[in-house]
Amino acid sequence: VCIRSALRVLSRRIFVTMAPKEMIRQIGLDAWTVEDFKETIYKEGCKKLHIVDVYTAWCGPCLSIVPTFKNLQVSVDQFEERCTISQVERSILPEYAERFPETSKPRFMFYKFGVEVTVIEGLAAPAILKFIEENLPPMEIED
């Protein structure tokens, strides 16, 4: 399913913002640790696309993109099996604290096969959706 066309269709429906379950993980919530996060995104050979919202403590994670992610969760087949979404406060990870300055602008990092693929600065929803569409792994076909 083309992500853009699915979003166009679903944007006209009221239930779009309701996702089946919460798939966005945040370090420190629900006993999800830094080690769990690193194990998830740096897992060698993992085909999933990993999206990381790196935020500043005084600003918090980007809430404006959450409905877009929930739309994808509802409209894209097996989205949860093909993608993970994490929110990480920049000072929790020394490598993020050193690399990224404190700012109110959201920053989205994308990982695949245990390697950082790209970073998108700001709430650039069209660029984020395009990247997801081009990099979401194919669905696993069951025999």
From TrEMBL:
Segments forming domain Thioredoxin: 33-133
Signal peptide: none
Organism superkingdom: Eukaryota
Gene3D superfamilies, alphabetized: Glutaredoxin
Pfam families: Thioredoxin (PF00085)
InterPro entries reported in the protein's UniProt record: Thioredoxin-like_sf, Thioredoxin_CS, Thioredoxin_domain, TXND_domain-containing
Name of the protein in its database record: Thioredoxin domain-containing protein
